[in-house]
Structures
1.
Amino acid sequence: MPFLESLRGYQSRVETALAHWLPAADIQPDHLHQAMRYAVLGDGKRIRPVLVYASGEAFGVDLAVLDGPACAVEMIHAYSLIHDDLPVMDDDDLRRGKPTVHKAFDEATAILVGDALQSLAYQLLSGNQEVVNGKTQLQMLNVLSEAAGAAGMVGGQSLDNEAIGHDLTLSELETMHSLKTGALIRSSVVLGGMSHAQASESQLGALTQYASHIGLAFQIQDDILDETSDTETLGKPQGSDRQQNKPTYVSLLGLDQARDKATELADQAIASLSGFPGSADRLRELAFYVVERIH
Amino acid sequence: MPFLESLRGYQSRVETALAHWLPAADIQPDHLHQAMRYAVLGDGKRIRPVLVYASGEAFGVDLAVLDGPACAVEMIHAYSLIHDDLPVMDDDDLRRGKPTVHKAFDEATAILVGDALQSLAYQLLSGNQEVVNGKTQLQMLNVLSEAAGAAGMVGGQSLDNEAIGHDLTLSELETMHSLKTGALIRSSVVLGGMSHAQASESQLGALTQYASHIGLAFQIQDDILDETSDTETLGKPQGSDRQQNKPTYVSLLGLDQARDKATELADQAIASLSGFPGSADRLRELAFYVVERIH
């Protein structure tokens, strides 16, 4: 199957699964449920669920087994966007081409929607699903919750908040992104691999390597698009990092060097998969997609 | 051991465990970690962990096995207080006798601290601990995450937000509290019971009954204290519910009837435990404590 077709397949699959697992809009507390569905469903690149599916498929795992982890990582991602967009954080009004949750509803609702989505991610992953075995499922929960918390995504967001208006070195910027976006991207790839009972430690290590590279490449491409794209294509305000005086790869390296670094990272990501068979081709294609995407 | 002595024992035990599991204040991201420790450690009734310990002890479970679930429920509770206290929610400046997290730090930090504590609760409960078995541990995670989310605590908070300035019937008020505070209290008692591998469905059902009664009694006593106590004793602003025009048991029933109902619920809670041996005496004593406490 051509890459873009399988990408659309993953995206459409996770959309259906998310719609199924999110609480129904017409049952109490309906206001909260409506806001949860508004926040998660619709447009979205779904990079993290796509990585879960592609990584699982590298081991021949059935897609039905991967729906749970795929939805869980997307719910964690969606909640983090909602909280990051709040006025006391990044204060963004536009996300995925529509008003952010606190604009469409209100700030209190946005906080609660984020909180409920985080719970739902773990509820999903701990529920009775088609999974490898109880012990591995527990380990998957441990991987996801660690990646989401103070040692991962939330820790990175905290460093990001403190960085506003300060000069960061390239190494400090990388540390911040390695936590803020990198941790959840790494865990997405690892969760896909863990869904295969026989995945070895060294295979999971290679996947983590792969994911570290594309996580950073993804962030660099984000910074490039923030400079070079437009608000309509991005679905969020163009130039907002510069406006908030946030350090980016482009501000530190310049546009050309940033592009070179992103391509180099995609190559390194693919090299990490040298021990994997052709079934990992989706992951290889994704590495290119991450640095070639236009939104 | 006299009841108050064992209560202090549980409280001191969970404080030590929390201090151990919260990330250290001197490692990066240190600002976030300091705020997490500020939010959780120190004064606190620790009712939910106490219920985990007392419920586990009713089955003779070793206290070391109960530390994980005890800390997990307290972290979920602590995160909910931090988010509830935010200006766009209840806008409270005082909690447990000290400035709320967004006053002592800032609002962005308070949001992130809450988010990180929620992750940490699941990380803890999915980690390698002394537990009954993998399957039960997964079920415990499922119970806790459901109780914390849209079908439980967060759902109740959402109903509470919508109730401000509206007239609620007694039944609507009960539904709201059964979710907002009741769900986590029920899950605390159930998690304690589940920590015993041989706990039967009917025993867990009886524990849920018990917990439903004391959860409601706890809330009624909260409403009574909000009317009759003072800010210093409470450690949070006295009269804040009335000030915010929130419906309470006292506003709906009057003080005397509210007191009668709380006592009646404590009696019903104890009646739910009729099939349990003397090892459940801590739970029985707790039912009285909940309605007799002065803060």
2.
Amino acid sequence: MGAAGAEAKLRGGIDLGGTKIQAAIVTAEGEVVGDSRRPTPSSGGPADVAEQLAEALREAAAAGGVDPGTLEGIGVGSPGETNEVTGEVSRAVNLPGWDDAFALGPALSEALGVPVRVGNDVDVATNAEFVLGAGRPYGSILGVFWGTGVGGGLILDGKPWHGRGAAGEIGHVVVEIGGAHCPCGRRGCMEAYAGRGPMEAKARHEHANGKKTQLFEIMEKKGRERLSSSVWDRALKQDDQLAKKLVDRAVKALGAGVASAVNLLDVEAVIIGGGLGLRLGQPYVERIAAQMSKHLFLDKRPPAIVLAELGDLGGAIGASLLFDAAPR
Amino acid sequence: MGAAGAEAKLRGGIDLGGTKIQAAIVTAEGEVVGDSRRPTPSSGGPADVAEQLAEALREAAAAGGVDPGTLEGIGVGSPGETNEVTGEVSRAVNLPGWDDAFALGPALSEALGVPVRVGNDVDVATNAEFVLGAGRPYGSILGVFWGTGVGGGLILDGKPWHGRGAAGEIGHVVVEIGGAHCPCGRRGCMEAYAGRGPMEAKARHEHANGKKTQLFEIMEKKGRERLSSSVWDRALKQDDQLAKKLVDRAVKALGAGVASAVNLLDVEAVIIGGGLGLRLGQPYVERIAAQMSKHLFLDKRPPAIVLAELGDLGGAIGASLLFDAAPR
């Protein structure tokens, strides 16, 4: 792999998701020399999750023939509220027992023997696309991560925009006053229609009410307990009518919500990523663009609407980029 | 007025609106030493409008005891697309015959004998509140101008955010997919519910269908041809049920649309201005805030939601501030 000679410049990146952990060893140029993947623990607490993160990183290092102790540092993209100064993560509601602040950075640093920085998962993934991926040609982008929820990241005039710390909640842009219930507890959010979580809840509800669908058979055949992106993809390919209806509904919501953001910010490009976005790919990016054009104030001059380029490892690669800059 | 001694530092500001032109003579500290107001011509073309702008400025100068030729410069806040380098304005669709570019800056400069700069009306009004008004304590604000339409201006980290030139279209954030028709030709925009124009269209429609309302009697008594802000205000004070229903609907849309913008940008403050916003005032700012809280992702940490402080002359004062900075 030629990694040995350049070890001093190698970094680790870990993407901590609600269902899986992905780790990668990444060069300063963003090339992945080794990676690994394991499920996120669904019970226990932050310390157990941290253990799995360390293990994933060790596996990625082994795959790349790298000693973790020689890495320049390790970045972690995490859900919840991340404190980039203390390395603490709190309110990671999709992770087991993770409400209070847990010093994830220090814990991992002790386990792996190198500096660790933590950042918000969506922010690091947006930055990865901006620096190394589909966002490279642009100065201002909106990253839309269409997965279990719908996350958003903003880079304005070359710099991440965090507002008072919580900017980018594009999933909670309202597309229908008084509309569908959202996991956030409110109504009519874009995520209530487009998040894979709410989509699954709706599918289960309609299925229970007698609507025919192959979604759950496909899920069982694949040995899954949830309607994963690959389950939706398979059902669409089999022309499953319920899957089609619910994905169309999601695309419509994405079109309206993302167009709202563009009307407000007039960014140069929208990058579509996330588990479902990546899985459904370019044809669905085009459908989202078509739905957006119904709502764009300047529909004759839309932003570029493009698929994320870094794929599934974008989050881990973006996390490694936390070592490109001084901690904020 | 003590203006004579400070004439070298005085500036003119003109707010060019769809129904009225307001001009002010303003000190470098933002104090108004003279102002005037005249109706916007409803026929003719850009040259006729320019003539009225010059006349309004001369009147304001006379009211302040100032010779227009001694002003440091005159700023104009204009609708449509403004070119701050050439002083041209185009596509000002609410103004008579103003689709093509017209060199408003040069025309006014020739008429009045001093330098003239043009800027977007909503941007200059937002900047006025940021520099001199309700936005002073904050670093990032969203200005929401609730009038005939609903305009938006953004200041992020102390600097105006224009995107590719057309940012801030908060009126065209979608609040209801497939919802009410908007003057922009699309459906479900916030402005379709909250703009005074669409509110009037809806009121006329319901009135024609037999719904009882005093709105049009009040309008006639006031000698108006449109449901102006003062007409709505009067009708609300008389507990007119249709007026109440339509204003409630507008407030609901504003709550959802502005909350969407806050979820995305997490600004420190939202400033509510515009003809209807200023007229209905603080109680309605509070109603908008209450509707917003239903949709705010971080509802326990809302931004400040405050009434514009500079009142009706904010646009003209903001235009004068175009002479605070070099042209962009």
